[in-house]
Design brief:
The chain has seven helices and eight strands, in the order βαββαααββαββααβ. The chain is of the alpha+beta class and 258 residues long. α1 crosses α3, α1 packs across α4 and α5 crosses α7.
Length: 258
């Protein structure tokens, strides 16, 4: 399981429900031992204050903390964080981070901040970091909030097959998801493409995220919506052939900054 996403993933993450032309995501997967749980939660609270300053200043769009299910110690990753940007330049360069750290903790010296950040790093194993761009999403008035449930699907697509896969997602599956949203069966769907890492040896290349109000709605999704026609079913089956579904996490949003 540790190999899962460690050479490829960025991850449901998390796709936010915000209206803008472009969205970029840094998706991070954490391994947290049972005895590290309290320290890890303290670490994320420390960082949340910094992320709030970054969001207020326009450095980031927001930040999410997701608990992954099933989440056992030997089942890969227990948590995922997603930091959201409105440009690739902000995502890759991140020039104001230390400034926002100082704004969040003005009474702490540089030495104390260094020590705090070093101790925070020891509370978890940041096993995977992925840079993504969201390339498609559904429309609606769904408001993501603490308690939101998401299914994060990681897809492996041959580099020569990106066009066919993305076309299938947008032309075949996205309208289906949009209909389910219009019918109240789910809240949101998005498709993101990995920017870094990429290549034939990476574990995955794309991520789709389906968001639901709660677990009840997530578990009921398969019973919702009309049966596809014969032509639609054929298109769906052809679309499924364009990618390899590598892994799915169910995730619950436990904290966020906007």
């Amino acid at each position: 399981m540790k190999k899962l996403l460690i050479i490829a993933l960025v991850v449901l993450l998390s796709a936010p429900v915000v209206a803008q032309e472009k969205l970029f995501l840094v998706f991070e997967l954490m391994q947290v031992d049972n005895e590290q749980e309290n320290d890890y939660m303290e670490t994320e609270q420390f960082w949340k204050k910094i992320h709030q300053k970054r969001s207020d200043a326009g450095d980031i769009v927001g930040w999410d903390l997701w608990a992954l299910l099933p989440g056992g110690e030997h089942q890969g990753y227990q948590y995922a964080t997603v930091t959201l940007f409105d440009s690739a330049e902000k995502m890759f360069e991140n020039p104001n981070l230390w400034k926002r750290v100082k704004e969040a903790y003005p009474d702490m010296s540089d030495d104390d901040l260094d020590k705090k950040m070093m101790s925070a790093a020891k509370s978890r194993d940041l096993a995977v970091r992925i840079f993504m761009q969201e390339i498609a999403n559904t429309k609606g008035d769904f408001e993501m909030k603490v308690g939101t449930v998401a299914n994060m699907d990681f897809m492996k697509v041959d580099m020569n097959g990106y066009d066919a896969y993305e076309k299938a997602e947008m032309e075949v599956f996205q309208p289906w998801h949009q209909q389910m949203i219009d019918d109240g069966a789910k809240g949101y769907w998005s498709l993101s493409r990995f920017m870094v890492p990429t290549g034939s040896d990476t574990y995955a290349s794309h991520m789709t995220v389906n968001m639901f109000e709660d677990v009840k709605q997530a578990l009921a999704q398969n019973a919702s919506g009309e049966e596809p026609t014969e032509a639609q079913m054929k298109a769906i089956m052809e679309g499924l052939k364009t990618r390899d579904l590598k892994f799915t996490y169910m995730a619950r949003l436990i904290d966020m900054v906007r």
